[in-house]
Each structure stands twice: as structure tokens, then as C-alpha cells.
Write a structure and sequence with these properties.
This protein has helices at 10-29, 46-54, 69-78, 80-83, 120-123, 150-156; strands at residues 35-40, 59-66, 89-93, 107-110, 130-136, 161-170, 173-181. With 182 residues, it is of the alpha/beta class. It has a 7-stranded mixed sheet with strand order 3-2-1-4-5-7-6, sandwiched between helices. Strand 6 and strand 7 form a beta hairpin. The protein starts with 9 loop residues before the first helix and ends with a strand.
Amino acid sequence: MQLETDAFSNGQVDSKLWAAVELEQCVIENNIGSLDMYILGGWYALLHFMLKIRNNITINSCRSFDLDPSACSMANVINNTWESKDWAFRSFPQDMETVDYPAHINCVINTSTEHIKSNNWFDRIPKGTLCLIQSNDLVHIDHVNNVSSVNELKSKYNLSEYYIEDSKTIGTYTRYMIIGKK
């Protein structure tokens, strides 16, 4: 198993930490309670790791989905503490556009929308689900769905209620984030 060090770059860690802080704030301020979450395009599931070690909100369970089986294996290693506790965490190699949502899932996270052409993954999320969505304006060979503003992100992923609509400059690019109910 080879680790992709870009997952731990300043931009990746900064954007995941930003997501963690804002999600915690939303959960607490809106009395959402405990989360059963799916992370789409989860890579190494660093966001789950950060949320768990920060321990500011309760996460009952988390499933992370990524196309890359080696990334899922690494995510399971990184999050092994929670995997071994009644399978509270597990990563699976699966296309996010084929994920089904059991009734108990109340939070869906996708911090990699710039990598996905289609919105089918978003359309499958049940109404009323808490969603955290990020994208950016970084021009990169792997980016096929960039946005250039929070409003553009909102127009692509329309939520019924918004708790957070924000942007953050990270080095030479800007990352955009929305959190709310679908």
C-alpha cells in the first residue's frame, strides 16, 4: 500500500479542518444531535479522523466511499480505532453514484465535487439530509467540475436550507463550501 502524500498537503489538511470546524458548529447550533454519515470521494477519510479526534460532536457511524481500493484500505488503517469499535467506521471501494442511503444516514459529505462531472450522486441523496459540499477554482488536470463562487456551488447543489455558505483562500486557489439540509 503506497500513501499519496498530497492527501496530507497544507491545502488538503486546511480544507478538511475547515470543514470539520464548520460542520461541528452547524451540528451544535442547530441541535442536530448525533451523526450517521457517508463521505463520498473520501480518499483517506481524514475528515472523519479529524472529527473523531476533535471529539466535539457525536458520530455514531461513518462509511467512506472512493473509487480507489488502495485509498479505502489506507482509510481503514488511518481510522482503525473506530473500525474496531463495532464497525463505527469503514471505507469501501464504490462509485458514489451507486451508493444507496439507508434511513439512518443523516449526513452526507463530498469535499471533492471538482472531480465529478455528473450530479447524479447529489440527486440520490434523500431530502432532509444534512449535506457538506466543497469545491474549488483550482485549475488541475483532474478537475472537471470547478466553481468560481459560493453562488455557483449553490446553483449546482441546491439545498432547501443553508447553514454555511463560505469561501476560503488556500494558497493560490479558493475553496468553496456549503452546509445545509437538502
